[in-house]
Amino acid sequence: MSKVFVIAEAGVNHNGSIELAKKLIDVAAQAGANAVKFQTFKTENLVSKNAQKADYQKETTDSTESQFDMIKKLELDVDTHKELISYCNEKNIMFLSTPFDLDSVDLLSDLGLEIFKIPSGEITNLPYLRKIGNLNKKIVLSTGMADIGEIEDALDVLINAGTKKENITVLHANTMYPTPMSDVNLKAMVTIGNTFDIAYGYSDHTLGIEVPTAAVALGASCIEKHFTLDKTMEGPDHKASLEPSELIAMVEAIKNIELALGNVIKKPSSSETPNMKVARKSIVASKDIKVGEILNTENLAIKRPGDGISPMRWDEIIGSVAKKDYSKDELI
Question: Is Transferase among the key words of this record (predicted)?
Answer without folding.
Answer: yes
